Amino acid sequence: MNIAASRTAGAPTARAQVQWSLRWESELRLADHSELAEFFRKSYGPTGAFNAQPFEGNRSWAGARPEIRVIGYDARGIAAHVGLLRRFINVGGVDLLVGELGLYAVRPDLEGLGISHAMRVMYPMLQQLGIPFGFGTVRPALEKHMTRLVERQGLATLISGIRVRSTHPDVYPNLSPIRIEDVIVVVFPVGRSISEWPAGTIIDRNGPEL
C-alpha cells in the first residue's frame, strides 16, 4: 500500500466538506488521469523525488493499475485517493483472493483525513465483490501510524515479520526483475475472519505492487 505522508493538519470543517466518489478505471477520462497524476506528484514528492517519478505526464498509477478508485474531492480539487485491485496472492504456499489496496495519498493540508475515511467508502465495494480480505503493505516505519489509523478502530489487523515478493513494473538491464521487501502487512477482514488468514512469512504477489 503506497502511502504518501502529509505535513500539516487540516481543520475538521475542511475534512467534513470532502465528498467521496467511487470510480471504475474504465470511467476515467484523460483529464481525470492528468488531475490524479498531478495530485500524486504533489503528495508523494515530499517523501522523495523518486516516489513522484512514476506519475510523470498523465500516468496516474505507479505499478499495477487499479480497477476501482475511491477519490475524495473538495473545493480545491482532489483531497484523497485509494485504489483497489482484485488479485490472487500466495501466502505461505496458499493461493488467496484479495483486494489489494494501494495508491493511498492525502493532500498535504488534510493530514487528519486518514485512510479510515476512504476505507469506509471502499468497504461496501469489497463486500459487494465478494472479496474475503483487503490486503496492503506499509513500511515498518509507518507501523505506529497505521495502528492509530486502522487497527485501533477495528478496521484491520497488522502483521509483522513478513517478506513480500513482487515484480518491478518495468524490466531494466542489470537489475533483478524481482523485489523482496520486509514490510508490515495490513489485512482487512471482509468476507472471512482474520483467523482464516493463512500462516506464512512469505507472500508472493506474482506481479507488481499496486
Automatic annotation (TrEMBL):
It is found in: Cytoplasm. Its main location: cytoplasm. It holds the Pfam family NodA. NCBIfam families: nodulat_NodA (TIGR04245), PRK00756.1 (NF001974). The gene is nodA. This is Nodulation protein A. Keywords: Acyltransferase, Cytoplasm, Nodulation, Transferase. Belongs to the NodA family. N-acyltransferase required for nodulation. Acts in the production of a small, heat-stable compound (Nod) that stimulates mitosis in various plant protoplasts. InterPro entries: Acyl_CoA_acyltransferase, NodA, Nodulation_prot_NodA_CS. One of its GO terms (cellular component) is cytosol. Gene3D superfamilies: 3.40.630.30. GO terms for molecular function: acyltransferase activity. Its EC number is 2.3.1.-. PROSITE patterns: NODA.
